[in-house]
Design brief:
The structure is a homotetramer of 257-residue chains.
Chain A: E1 5-8, E2 18-22, H1 29-40, E3 44-50, E4 57-61, E5 64-67, E6 70-76, E7 81-87, H2 94-109, E8 115-123, E9 133-137, H3 140-146, E10 161-163, H4 165-171, E11 179-187, H5 196-210, H6 219-246
Parallel strand pairs in A: 2-7, 2-8, 8-11
Antiparallel strand pairs in A: 1-3, 3-6, 4-5, 6-7, 9-11
């Protein structure tokens, strides 16, 4: 694989689709919020994305080999169809973020997708019982349209940069003929691995934007179930980063299987 | 995005265009001189360049998402048309400089552009009230043509190398069928972020080369307005460099949004 | 060479081929097991793979230049044809593993290959007189089919990740239209360079899977013969890693020949 | 420039050409030996190679901009035509060696070139008044053919690896349909920048192989003339390596021109 590739298993016809993206990040808010949507909306997987910029190992999970990937799901709603993108990981390499993001946007375009909302976390260092949801967009129309849903768009001074695919997917969307927004759930930041409360706050907003109902009663239970796998993913990636650092040490040729 | 891309918003017809390039660098002289030209000459944007070798984050600026980019503007003058290229950043990776430079030269060629002048700074460590402007060219004809404008071409011994896109754009121009020159405004170097005096000195030279008038009365004021954004750009990139260094530390998976 | 390339010397017609892969790794179990098969089955070489992600040097071996490579062999058996892939090295770069693996899978596909078994080692830290063979697969059918041969598929909790090409070849196989399995011979791990006992255990399993006979009486002797070359390979690569670390030191421009 | 490129200025017709390569390396023996041949044989330049894997700066030399490059020359002799390849530098990146070497071999092939001899140095740590010339080849026929010229092919145990383009050009030649040999002049190694005595020893051998006469009376004088430029090349590259190390320090954004 010379470059990031999307392997398509089926090609659904989608009506005016909007893509909701939940990749790992601060508090894994995007990952668990959109992962929960996949379960609750009974979304169907139709493509997988692999990248040379993901870590070069496979995980053993439930006695089987699991290869790091991002996954595209879709579900149909009354108003419009939804593409849900979740992932095991982001790339470990700065250049990789651009490659993966470009591949995703190109792929979304083939379905006539015109809008992308990425979900992430914003670590404040404080514990908040009613976490706010912040929004960052590429044009003021989006802000006008969505302000009424309780998104806090007044973010200058609070949020300086959004690092990784969640920011770039929106930041490059317009060049690919789409519009986009980042939704950031307020969370404490370190060292919480998953923050279901912030994920829930974001889901409440997404319900309004997408004009759908998401039953949130099972979120704690589902997040608990996801938690172990996400924790293992983080652990092996941390391990991999350590090993890559040691890669430069001669004796470390041997960690390869 | 697998490689650096130029997204063209309109394709103007240009008459014998010359490209003036102002990218960030020592004293940001190129950035502010050419940025000022864009304002004063009321140049129109017609293309944006994004690169996987720019930092993988978006900035929040005035409550909106700003993605790192270089921008192409054009303006028409009596003598010839001018393409103005300014940018938020240069690439953080040595290989990236070549990629971006190749893309720029290829793009300029499609407009029949035959000449490129890049503007940069030369840090002397001294404060100079009347900063000199140094010139480096790829052939002696340019030196002969432009010496009369007060450019100091006697630079061996003073300037050893020109690092980054400003040097390479000119150094590779001939292989792409163009000629070029680097104009370096004398500046103290560290730690001045923007040096409007040196920028002004370069603009005085460019006026003569381009046979145009640039009203320089508003330069201090305009530079002050640009200053904040440039400072933020520098700050977030410095932050990003620090984070990329820490990227190899397992606990730092978490800085991703 | 911009990318990993397979240079084909002849293109054999192969009947329902299965590919057995033995690359360097823990205890070099794959490398010596599959290397031994090449000798014993009198397999014929038909292609060589070179990669920009292998170290950029040539070795002197028996007064001749040896360039780092992977090699494809084939042999015909009653039941089905076998492609044997052995190599001097894996890539030193994480991204390289994906590139090499993609090239291998693309190449295997052109022969109608539908199955790939990679052989590696699993370092337990214990000495075991009768080393177990562990298996990891991408789907439960393989486990059902092969369990009877004495492979231990109950690996969760014992094996967390499989790093490098052996894991990825199987992990990505399905996306390329193949099925796969990793066979891991139990070995002590450090600091044994070659572990013929574990290799023998894996070969006993492969005999059953492939329905062939492999005369194992000469394995110790053959491994001894291979040992020197493998040791030199490891030594020069360790040296190269040290030199690449020092590459950033100015004085080290000079190690280049 | 996304990849290494050869810019061809004229396309000579060449009769059974052999390519002699002199790139910078230990004692710069190849660089000065082949550089001297270019002068003495009045060879004509017909192509230049630039690479994203060369350092991203231009040098100021004699008040002009000099961009790092390799250069192809040719000259016609009674027996066969000769392509001479000399260069300012090798790539700073391991992957780059493969890319540059592949581009060179592809380019040579377009001229029907079937043989390549690279010239390098072998640092022994000893001063030798009559330096030996060592040879490393990819097949035994070359050894048989050239042994009579006084090349020492008995190198196992003395030379372990040949790092960089000189080794790889020969190591990969066969896969590109060529044969090749590395000629290594014995030299002390550190810290001599140029070793004309070893270069002379190699030239004596090349005279015999190529059946030409090279007037060696001016070599000391010519090497002295080349010395300054080579020393500056080395100095700026060492500087660049230092700066690239510091690149990761936030304050070092500023060294860019």
């Amino acid at each position: 694989m010379l470059e990031t590739r999307v392997f398509v298993t089926k090609k659904p016809k989608l009506r005016n689709p909007i893509c909701i993206v939940g990749l790992p990040g601060i508090g894994n808010i995007g990952r668990i919020a959109v992962g929960y949507m996949v379960h609750e909306l009974k979304a169907k997987k139709f493509a997988e994305l692999y990248s040379p910029y993901f870590f070069p190992f496979v995980m053993i999970h439930n006695n089987m080999i699991h290869t790091l990937r991002n996954e595209f799901y879709y579900c149909k709603t009354k108003k419009r169809d939804i593409i849900l993108l979740i992932g095991d990981c982001q790339t470990y390499d700065p250049k990789g973020h651009y490659e993966v993001v470009g591949k995703i946007l190109d792929f979304l375009k083939t379905f006539g997708c015109k809008a992308v909302i990425t979900v992430g976390g914003f670590g404040t260092g404080r514990v908040s019982e009613k976490p706010k949801v912040y929004g960052a967009a590429t044009n003021s129309d989006i802000i006008k349209d969505y302000k009424k849903y309780g998104i806090n768009f007044d973010i200058s001074g609070q949020i300086g940069t959004i690092v990784g695919a969640s920011g770039l997917l929106v930041g490059l969307a317009r060049s690919y003929g789409m519009e986009g927004m980042v939704l950031l759930g307020e969370t404490t930041g370190f060292p919480i691995i998953t923050d279901p409360t912030a994920a829930e706050a974001v889901l409440r907003i997404l319900e309004k934007i997408l004009k759908i109902k998401i039953d949130l009663t099972k979120i704690d239970e589902k997040v608990k179930a996801m938690h172990d796998f996400i924790k293992r993913l983080e652990d092996v990636q941390k391990q991999a980063i350590s090993q890559m650092k040691k890669r430069d040490k001669p004796e470390e040729l041997k960690y390869i299987g």
